Amino acid sequence: MRLVLGIESSCDETAAAVVAEDRRILSNIVLSQLEDHRAYGGVVPEIAARAHLDHIERVVSEAMATAEVGFADLAGVAATTGPGLIGGVIVGATVGKSLALVHDKPFIAVNHLEGHALTCRLTDNVPFPFLLLLVSGGHSQFLSVAGVGQYRRLGGTIDDAVGEAFDKTAKMLGLGFPGGPAVEQAALSGDAARFALPRPLLGRPGADLSLSGLKTAVRLAAEKLPAPVSAQDLSDLAASFQAAVGDLLADRLKHALADFLAEHPGGKHVVIAGGVAANKALRARLQTTVATAGLELVAPPLKLCTDNGAMIAWAGLERLRRGESHGFDAPCRPRWPL
Ligand code: KG4
Ligand code: ZN
């Protein structure tokens, strides 16, 4: 039974996990740096890199202790080597490479996006091929996934990522940081029909997304709110924004599905992954679209949607069992498309 240690440090979570080849998560330690960044209303790369350095040793030790394994028990060490905030990536990748070197284990350089993409195989054993909607703070794209490393891009955002739009909306409405969960929470008690917001690209051919017009419309609507602005006003605007995103994603998903099924007529699964996949209202909205098309929507458990070490360990395992590992010269990359 192969075990892999996975290390993640590409954004503001310092994380490590031990995962077994039979899909057991033996440990999954995630240390969020939220408090370090809150005062700035967003992630500050330099602060993130230093915080990773402060915490990573403790997080890795805790992951090993919780899993009750020693380094000798590992089949390999995997770490995110991109894409992401490069200072943090370098910290995690260097620790991963060093541990692999000292304990004479293979090192696996993992693409963070592949970690999100393959999480559904760890949690739900989803077979290839599947259609993936990857929605996070930095990325929003539809991918046809035919196998490990076999990704075809069907469409994606032409401006902001979906998570970024949630974060900016939260900032404009003063709902706090991180934005996604704050908008979702506020929207729970809001009237989604109160504000008529645009749905850019709706009905257009292809599976591209655009969020910037919607973001501007939220800003204009927020500026027009009569003083004093009430909590109900903010909830209504949050709910209207979230509904617009839902309509947009559902429409684009229909187009991506047609493209995916043309290539893989027997395809059965649509997977939503990345931080935004934690949004329950969006999951429910997409569930309807996917069920109508006769396919199954798979969404990982909430805590495996946002950044974590288990997804990196699992992607490392998927690579390792294909006989792949990487040299200690594996580069750290701020940009690394799938
Ligand atoms: O995958 P992730 O943890 O980090 C990146 O790789 O980007 O995604 C973080 C993004 C943030 O933009 C955050 O606001 C968004 O995911 N997010 C959400 C929710 N939880 C996290 N967006 C909408 N609703 C949520 N519940
Ligand atoms: Zn991520």
Automatic annotation (TrEMBL):
Positions with a binding annotation for Fe cation: H112, H116, D307
Gene Ontology MF terms: heme binding; iron ion binding; tRNA N(6)-L-threonylcarbamoyladenine synthase activity
UniProt binding sites for substrate: L134, V135, S136, G137, G138, D167, G180, E184, N279
Gene Ontology cellular-component terms listed: cytoplasm
Name of encoding gene: tsaD
Name of the protein described by the UniProt record: tRNA N6-adenosine threonylcarbamoyltransferase
Keyword Transferase set for record: yes
Phylogenetic classification of the source organism: Bacteria, Pseudomonadati, Pseudomonadota, Alphaproteobacteria, Rhodospirillales
Biological process (GO), any one: tRNA threonylcarbamoyladenosine modification
Subcellular location: Cytoplasm
Organism: Elstera cyanobacteriorum
